[in-house]
Input
Amino acid sequence: MSEESKAEKFLEIFNKGKEFTEELLRENQRLRYRLASMETEAAAGASSDEVRRMRDQITQLTEENRRIAQRFREVEEENKDFAHRYIEIEEQNNNLANLYVASYQLHSTLDFREVIQIVQEIIINLVGAEAFAILLLDEKTNELKAIAYEGEDVMPGVATISTRLGEGVMGTVAKTGESYYINQDVEGGAITLEKPLAAVPLKIKEHVIGLIVIYKLLQQKDAFSAVDYELFSLLAAHAATAIFSSKLYSQSERKLNTIQSFLDLLTTTS
Amino acid sequence: MENANFLVVEDSPTMRQLISFSLKRFKNAKIIEAVDGVDALKKLSGPDKIDLILTDINMPVMDGLKLVSLVRQNAQLKNIPIIIITTEGAEEDRERGLALGANAYISKPIQSSHLIKTISELLSV
Output
């Protein structure tokens, strides 16, 4: 082969190689383009799944949030109920303590003066009265007379108050056995010796032996409370029996002493 | 607060019992009672370390205000919290009691829950 044909042959191979290389580059370009398109498509497909998944999750969380908010409201209401109930129970507990102590003290002695003192303590410390009187009924004369009192300085005349059975507010309470309440200190002198804030009969069953009459509450107390009415009910019955039994006991003690003295005298002289 | 020692100074047995009844809310509370200020000072010098004093004002022999004053002047006793419980509800009475050194002033009739809350605050329960 001549030098010239060798050169032509080489040029031909070179040209074919060039064409092949150019074809490979084009194919490469086409594939890269296709790959990029597929990647974009794939990415777009994945996002919509993610969005769908997240939307589902948002829906679930919203529902859960709604349920929690609802439960929170329910618990809040329950708490309010519990708090309210707690206050009621506290109040009830306080009332029961007052009633327990009052009845315990009333029946702790048979000494007449001590019983009267205890009734006074209950009226001052538990009811919160500043001016009041305890009246006993003399069944022979049908007259109610004060045997103990408090607050002569703020209610002059309370120490010597008396009335007849059936007369005026107090006499009517003693006769009917029905309590009388105004429940607030009326300004302007409307409370008088004859027209008290409260008059509570001291009763043994239906038998009235006296009255508790209240004229003025302590300055820090505006009106009777629920427990006061309970205390009045308790005093109406328990104070009556305590006063009555201590009075009988005192009388029998006195009689016993008299009889004993008489027997001693007889023994000494015989 | 557990195991607290309370000194209740009150001439009325009814009130002593009522206050003692309320104090039983405190676990293992020991309640020491005194009938007036002099009796209270005796109990304060006794073997029990008192954590809180509850005192009435109007009492025979020595009243509650004198007791508060003497306790505050005593080096060993001056830091004991004191609550005055009284029928004297006027603002000037309240101010006088607090000025003498009482930590709290409660007017009768007492509410057990209010008393417990006041004690709890003073003893930081």
Remarks:
- DSSP finds four helices and six strands in chain A.
- Helices of chain A lie at 3-106, 112-127, 168-176, 226-269.
- The mean pLDDT of chain A is 87.
- The radius of gyration of chain A is 51 Å.
